[in-house]
Every structure is written in C-alpha cells, then in structure tokens.
Amino acid sequence: MKYSIAAVTAFIASATASLYGESDLNHTCILQPNYLSCSKQANPTTVDSCCVETYGGLVLQTQYWDINTGYEAEGQLLPAYSWTIHGLWPDFCNGSYTQYCDLGRQFDPHPSPNTTNGKRNGTAVPAYIGPGISTFLAPFGKFDLLAYMNKYWVSQGSPNSDFWAHEFSKHATCYSTFDVPCYGPEYRQHEDVVDFFQTVVKYFMRFPTWGWLGAHGIHPSNTTTYTLAALEAALMHEYGAVPYLGCSGPDFNLTAAGANSTDDGGTVLDEVWYYMHTYGRVQDGQSIPVNQTGSSSCASAPGAITYPERASGSVVY
After folding, report:
1. Which of 167, 191, 232, 271 is catalytic?
2. Which residues carry out catalysis (predicted)?
3. CATH 3.40.50.150 fits 5-55+92-206, yes or no
C-alpha cells in the first residue's frame, strides 16, 4: 500500500509529543535573547524554548572509564588514551530529572527503566523494534560521525548502537531545544537524532579527562592508588568546577585497607560527570561550569581509589 508524503508526515507528527505543544514555526534563534539555562529569564512562558533550554537546564556531560567491553570478539574496543562517552543529560535545575519524555521518539530496544518514572505506576516504555539507530545517520551522510562514535562512544555489555538509542530516547527527548517542532516545517525524520549525536560529541571533545588527569600525574595503574581529593582538585583546576566522580568495586570499609573504617565509598574509579548551564541552545555549545549537585560515590580515605589499566586485548590504538 502506498501513502502520500502528507499522510506520512501527519503520522510522524501525531506519534511525536512536543514538550510544550509549540508549533513548528518562528523559531529563528538569532532573534532571541541568549539567556542562560536555569536563570530566571529561562522561562518557557516568556522565551522561545527552542532557542533557550527551559526544560533540562542543568546539563551533564558524562563519561566512563571501562576496562573492557564484553564485545571484543565483535571488534568493539576501547580507545587508548581517552575516556569514553556516556551521554549528555538534561537534569532539572534542582538536580532531579525525568526520562523518556517522548515515546514517539523511543528507539531503545531495552528501555531502562521500563516506565517513564521508574515506578510501577509510570507509563510503560515499550521496547523498540526496528532498524538500529546507527542507520539513521546514513541519509545525512554522517559516516565520519558514525566512525567517531564507534571509537569513543563505546558500550559495555551491549552493541554500541543499542547504547546510543538508550541515551537518545531516555535523555535527548527531555531537552526543549531538541524538541521536534524546533526543526521547523521542513523537518527530516531523525534530524533531531543526528543533531543530538553531534552535540554529545561536541561536548565530549571539550572535556579530555584522560589528559586532564595525566597533566596532574594521575595515570591508569594497577599498582598506584589515588585519593579522591587529589582527583577532584585536578579536574577542578582544568574544568573550573568540581565534577561528580563515580566509583564501583568493593566499598572501602570492606577491603583489608579499610577494615574498621566507616568510609563505605567505592574504590574503583569509573565515571565522571561534568555539570554546566548553557547559553541559548544546548547545541551551540556555550556553557559555564557548575559544581556537582551531590557528592562523589568514591571513598574519601587517603589512597583508597584505583584507576585501573584497561584489559589486554580491549584497547585500540
């Protein structure tokens, strides 16, 4: 059966929920004030939310330090001399957040959580069945972007494409500036997906965690240990604000070194989250550093943290 272009366009529009119900007209952002997200001027009733982030105004660029992928046999390897991308998250200004804001743009084959609020009474998030999100880049000719993502946006325990679909569906749909109406009446299907991927990469390239830590003598090692205060000080010096550092592994008070300690923080460094507010559209990359809203999950005891080397056979140079 054949469908008209108008019918297909109408279907896409009906399946996609706008955060504010705005039209797809008159979003010429050069005519709008370049307000800072989370400022009193970033009010969706008084500014164009396509031009100023008014929904998820506390932006987090998040990164992983993994030592393997579990998909080495499929050629999914970790880059040498670099952390990898986790995502670009739109928290509310108070540090809380929401997720899966537009089920019409749900491309996650394994939604986690599987409801919009993470609770049983939330709206169910159906698993996506369809072409992988990596195929969305080809019509836009973004093969170079795809290659970069496969090198630096690497999943652990799942194909890269599934990870990217999760990050877009759960987080990108909760930005006002990535809302579909913002792309105007000539919106091309999945244009917002490609725009989000480019924006994630833009921010990641600005935060070279491996190099920043290395500049302060902090390198991956299976023998040297580090202290949280030194890690935070190094990144504060380079970034201008204190990021969140995440640690897994055994809690310090469950290790031999931490016996009789009350410090129950993790001991294996594996995440960093850089917080910021943005001017105008998130896509434009104009941001100011903001301190983390909580506190690190890492142990604070001296020498409690390891920054392990990556596994042999899991790295590409």
Report:
1. 167
2. 86, 167, 171
3. no
